[in-house]
Amino acid sequence: MGAATTTVRGRRAVPWLVLGLWIAVLALTSPFASKLADVQRDRAVDYLPASADSTQVAKIQDRLPGGETTRMVVVYHRDGGLTAADRATAADQIGEIADAHPLTVRPEGVPSKDGTTLMYPVASTEPGTDEEKRDQLVGDVRDIAQGEDGLSVDVGGEGALATDASEVYNSLDGPLLYTTAAVVALLLILIYRSPFLWLVPLAVAGIADYLSMGVAYGLNQGFGTSVSGQSSGIMTILVFGAGTDYALLLVSRYREELRRVERPYDAMAAALKGCGPAVLASSGTVAAGLFCLLAADLNSSRGMGPLGTVGILCALAAMMTLLPAILVLLGRRVFWPLVPRYDSTPKVRRSLFAAMGSSAGRRPLTVLAGGAVLLGALALGALNLPGSLKQEDSFTSKPEAVAALETLGKAYPERGTQPISVIAPTDRADAVLAEARDTPGVDSATRGRSGDGWTELSVIAGSAPQSAGETATIKELRDRLDGSYVGGPSAQQLDMKDTNARDRLVVVPLVLASVLLILMALLRSVVAPLILVAAVVAVWGAALGIGGLVFGPVFGFEGTDPGLGLLSFVFLVALGVDYGIFLMHRMREESLKGTEPAQAALIALRTTGGVIASAGLVLAATFAVLTSMPMLQLVELGFVIAVGVLLDTFLVRTYLVTSASVALRRKVWWPGALSKDPAAGSGELPEPVTETVGAR
User: Distance between CA atoms of 632 and 394, rounded to whole angstroms?
Assistant: First the structure.
């Protein structure tokens, strides 16, 4: 009796100990979490390919006297043609800018042939690599350069565009967090139909996000892991999306156990034992897939790997320790008004997933073939994806730097309006300068700063920025100028496109291999993992295809981010396999009880269909939040992943994977022991059954 009492008291103390441990962890990480925004960097070098020419140019420019150069173009424009007063105003304002800030050269105006536009290239090393000072310089130039009486003045160029992009990324954190939390809260209220229960997983997800910020800051300080606005935003989405998925699975299983087990502590222990392996495998799959991004050469993709992994692991830790402790402490009353009473029989209702499973079970091969044809047809839409996204098309609303680019493109169609940067060895700088001037497509070339054995050259192409002509000129310069580096904004876009193509060839096989190995270890099978991986790859192709059908024709997008294919693949494969794990793990659990495999597949769909649908809706909604952001890269990524998750949840997981499992029967577990054991059941498919109210 005394031993039993001691055991009960010990069990009651465990949730309090876990809660106390989390309070201590948060107290330790709190000072670091608040500093993550301080180390967030959105300079070009933080996104560029690590080994590309344009990256080397950016790094060497940092070491030249004065450090990084902030380049701007002040654009004066009047539709009917500039007047003498306009030109005088422009000269006075540029002189004021030169007096207020140290410029590398005195700006000279370049008039357009039609007389409507006058541009002044402005460059300064005053800010160096300090983003805050760069933004202040751009702001000062914009304050001075003002138009009136029909004269428009816009400040564009590389530095101004970077400032506008930085302002957008810095504005993401608050709206992204609040919108994500609001979307998750709304869905949890609808799913749980409880005024209290939804608060628990949402609060735990918020705590996990805060912890991930502290860990991400530690990685930055300890290992130099890059942190950008894009990667930190994706980390928040992953914490809330994947973390809520794990919570849904755990709470659903916990609710089931509360009807069979009297004490909440014991019910939670049974729930963790039942769904723990699936959640661990699920999070391990996502973390492994994201970690493969470390093999990418693109800095923005490689930096997203560790931060995404941190987000997933923090979500896992919180949902598997803190969430159970809080739920046990709150007891059954947290489920009010649908409280799961011990040894009670819940109300029942017709199960949608039982009906779906029955239709898949009756004609599995027909369902499988029809689904494959549908996904294949949708995937053809990827052929209609717009071309590579240009810098000026990256914003959903037009900032001033983009307005300047558009004006320049119309006024100076015969020449480049932003320099191509060439870094040459100082002892060969004159020869490289002469060779650059003789290169076809080059309009002019001038010599700039020297230092640390390198000399900077500024080359103006004879074609508009990011046009086919300028791209050809950049490639020709790289072929001719051996031993030199060719960079600048247009070269950076070219390198990003080429590097993304290279990264797909390296990262995609790594992701597939790591996911397959985890699935094989969990399911003790080769066939089942191959089915799951083939399914999520098909979903990825179909989601990209839907993007191709709507991005240009419906949304009017002018281009597609070069990294969309790789990042959407990593997220959809890793996250999509989650639901396959939930389904297959339950199917294997039923098969181990002796249930005939075809029956086990339909029972697994019936019992997990509700929670998988709920989890899919939550994950799709969290990624859909990205479509409200002002950066087109995030909009496209959020759309493709959200559509892919919905396809996976309501088509692939419910119909195609189930029908494949029914058709293959025991072969689905080949070569494991389950593929060899004799059938324990009758072999007949179950009749449509009912699902418990609130089983989700």
Answer: 5
Backbone torsions φ then ψ of 453, nearest 5 degrees: 85, 5
pLDDT at residue 696 in the model: 34
Amino acid letter for position 499: T
DSSP secondary structure of 295-344: G-SBHHHHHHHHHHHHHHHHHHHIIIIIHHHHHHHH-GGGGTTS---TT-
Structure tokens at 504: 């797909």
Residues 590 and 561 sit within 8 Å (Cβ to Cβ): no
Half-sphere exposure for 158 (CA within 13 Å, toward CB): 25
- 372-387: buried (b, 16+ CB within 10 Å) or exposed (e) per residue? eeebeebbebbeebbe
**pTM over the 0.85 mark:** no
pLDDT given for residue 1 in this prediction: 47
Backbone angles phi, psi at 673, to 5 degrees: -65, -30
Distance CA 420, CA 24 (A): 53
Query: Residue 366, Cβ neighbours under 10 Å: how many?
Result: 12
pLDDT one-digit tens code per residue, 11-52: 668 889 999 999 999 999 888 988 888 888 777 677 778 788
Element (H, E) at 109: none
Three-state DSSP class for residue 529: helix
DSSP state of 118: E
Question: Letter for the amino acid at 424?
Answer: A
Burial profile 337-356: b = 16 or more Cβ within 10 angstroms, e = fewer = eeebeeeeebeeeebebbeb
Whether 299 contacts 208, CB under 8 Å: no
Instruction: Name the CA dihedral angle for 298, 300, 305, 308, rounded to a multiple of 10 degrees.
Output: -160
Residue 533 class from Cβ within 10 Å (0-12 exposed, 13-18 middle, 19+ buried)? Answer: buried
- Weakly modelled stretches of the chain, pLDDT under 50: 1-4, 679-696
Picking from 541, 537, 540, 442, the residue whose alpha carbon sits closest to that of residue 486 is: 442
Please tell me the distance from the alpha carbon of residue 421 to that of residue 57, in angstroms, as a whole number.
Answer: 7
Residue type, 28: L
Of 198, 286, 205, the residue nearest 241 (C-alpha): 205
